[in-house]
Amino acid sequence: MNGANRARGSNASAMDMTCGSIRRRLLAFTLPIMMGNLFQQLYSMADTAVVGRGVGAQALAAVGAANPVTQLLLGLIIGMTSGMSVVIAQHYGAGNRGLARRAIANGLYLILALTASVTAIGLLCCRRLFRLIRTPEELLDGAVLYAAILFGGTAASAFYNYEASVLRAFGSSLVPLLFLIIASLMNIALDLIFVMVMHMGIAGVAAATVLSQLVSAVLCLFYMRKRVPEIRMTHEDWTPSRALMAQHLKTGIPMAFFQSLLAVSFLILQSALNTLGSSDMAAYTAASKMDTPVYQILGAFGTAVSTFVAQNYGKGELGRIREGVRKSLQMTLAVSIALTAFVYLLGQWFMTLFIAPQESRILASGLRYIHTTSLFFGILGVNYVVRFALIGVGKTIIPMAVGLSEIATRAAVTFLLVRQFGFTGMIFASPACWFTSTALCLACYPSMMKKAFVQRKILPQPSANLDG
Questions:
Q1: Neighbours of 147 (CB within 10 A)
Q2: How many CA atoms lie within 13 A of 30 on its CB side?
Q3: pLDDT tens-digit profile of 384-431?
Q4: Backbone phi, then psi, for 276, in 5-degree steps?
Q5: What is the pTM of this model?
Q6: How many Å separate Cα 297 from the centre of its chain?
Q7: Residues contacting residue 82 through CB under 8 Å, at least 6 positions apart
Q8: Which residues are CB-neighbours of 439 under 8 A, at least 6 positions away?
Q9: Backbone torsion region of residue 356, taken as left when φ is above 0, otherwise alpha when ψ lies between -120 and 50, otherwise beta
Q10: pLDDT tens figures, 302-313
């Protein structure tokens, strides 16, 4: 067994995606991510269900109004950790264990700095952001309280997301799933205790989310220290490296800004939604909970493709990258069709998880929303695969371009459709964004991938002595 294989074989939970059946490797990696993403969404869905059924429609609208603001800042961390995993996966795929460890250590320095910044900005500025998007006065205090608690727990979210990104860079997607299942069940239990028993209201669901994220972060850390030899650092591994930090920033910053630009696009839409009244706000908040699991299911294929492409790019397996992208598209389109069928069969039942049956007007509006958007899930699936394949080869400028296109599209929908047709205009906001951003990704894909392949063929293998 050569050195590269020894490095990868030392961790039983890791997966070398540069060999073996492409379809089986992708499915084995994707399914735990998909399940993990869905369990992670249980945080949000449990919050919404408990608030909507246990506190009231106005509280539900306040939580919905808070989401774009929290995503604006917390999305920076999620995007940064996703971008960093590409660097780690490329070094791991190349068999360079020393550089992978140093990349992890230097990435942690950046995450610590970003976490401190997001916490401070979130706590100091969230009320101003809510006023900026014209949050109704009757919802303002609830939205601020919910957001402030989440920002206070930024560290829990940041460290779990970074730990999970490191494990996924090594090809391990099952372990993060197991910890998320535990944390999600804990979140549901705490939601019920804090809201239904202790009557803490919105503060209770926010506190339950933070505590559950903290548990998943601690469990993941204990596991990694005991079972993942790739993170058993030496003193030299903790030496700051400007070169490795630059690599992380090159991939992490565009991903971070993409997440925040996406949140900005939702803030634009939220500002228009806030003028429609609490009934439409509640309908959109509940209905958009159907979009969120879809994002996570289809996004799992994107995460898998990114890791698959990054590992194979590090090793120079360019033909395997092409085949992996093709098979990912086939699987994603099949899943998209199944999700559309699910919406039409069980959409009404899903809506009643968040809205009481007697709220017939809100239920009807929400059902109309999810029926329409589900017809465009296939476009969203293609978007994830193509975009994340480019990220895997280091072409992270594409997320920035997609984020800007979504801002432009949501702004256009807001001013041309929502202000004129009200909630009906809201229904077409997401499909319009999926269409324009997917068209952009497909237009850029051939030339960007060709350029990345040319660069990979002429660049030397990375050295373990990369210094700052």
A1: 29
A2: 26
A3: 999 989 988 888 777 778 777 877 887 787 777 777 777 888 888 888
A4: -90, -15
A5: 0.71
A6: 11
A7: 165, 252, 255, 303, 306, 391
A8: none
A9: beta
A10: 888 988 998 898
